Amino acid sequence: MQEVLNFLSELKVNNNKEWFDQNRKRYEESRKKVLFLTELIIHEINKFDPEIGNQNPKDCVFRIFRDVRFSPDKTPYKINMGSFIAKGGRKSVGAGYYLHIEPGGSFVGGGAYCPPADSLKALRTEIFDHPEEFKNLINSNSFRTMYPEMYDDKLKTAPKGFPKDFPEIDLLKYKSYAFTSRISDSDVSGDAFVGKIIAAFKELSPVNRFLNTAIEKWL
Fold first, then answer.
1. Angle CA(127)–CA(210)–CA(146) in degrees, nearest 5?
2. I need a labelling partner for 116 at 20 to 30 A (CA). Which of 26, 102, 177, 214 fits?
3. Can you tell which superkingdom this protein's organism belongs to (predicted)?
4. What mean pLDDT do residues 100-129 have?
């Protein structure tokens, strides 16, 4: 994957259409590598989480083109490549597995990132009903070693509809139930990259199962 890192590094300092058009072949080759990697990962995930099914990698890999309509940043291209593997592909509202390749900022992870309001309420309801089960999943030694922290975007007060005196109210304040684990550039370009990704995703799979069960139960 070193070629992908090299392309993205150069794109970061040449984020314009003229340079991109001149290097379109390199982009297409990089995208093919990410698609192939995603296909391998899908196959491996199915061994421990068959619920995701046989996804088409093209439905999981994100476009490199930025939506600049409502952004003050008008640079046209993302400086990363990634894929979200879940039932329904990258547009899924359920929990899944995310791969992010960016020079100096690569990571793996997943869960439910910024779910829509109804899904978020379902997740909070399930955690409210089964707080110990969820805590045991995210606080196990192996999980905390791989994913030290949950994505920290929280409400300042208890979410509407839940009692403020609930002992685990802090768990219900999260707006996402997502986790990340950093990966170095040397890991991305190394021979053990796929194995590291799969190990991280396998560790995440019980949490994803809890989250997806909640969404299926309450929606």
1. 100
2. 102
3. Bacteria
4. 97
Question: Rounded to an integer, what distance in angstroms lies between the CA atom of residue 84 and that of residue 88?
Answer: 10
Class in CATH terms, 2-218 = alpha beta
Residue 196 has φ and ψ, to the nearest 5°, of -65, -40
- Which pLDDT value is given to residue 219? 79
Q: How far apart are CA 92 and CA 66, in angstroms?
A: 19
First to last CA, the chain: 40
Cβ neighbours of 53 (radius 10 Å): 13
Q: Measure the CA–CA gap between 74 and 68, rounded to whole angstroms.
A: 5
DSSP tally for the chain: helices H, then strands E: 9, 4
Has residue 204 got a pLDDT over 90? yes
pLDDT band at 6 (very low <50, low <70, confident <90, very high): very high
Q: Would you say residue 207 has pLDDT above 90?
A: yes
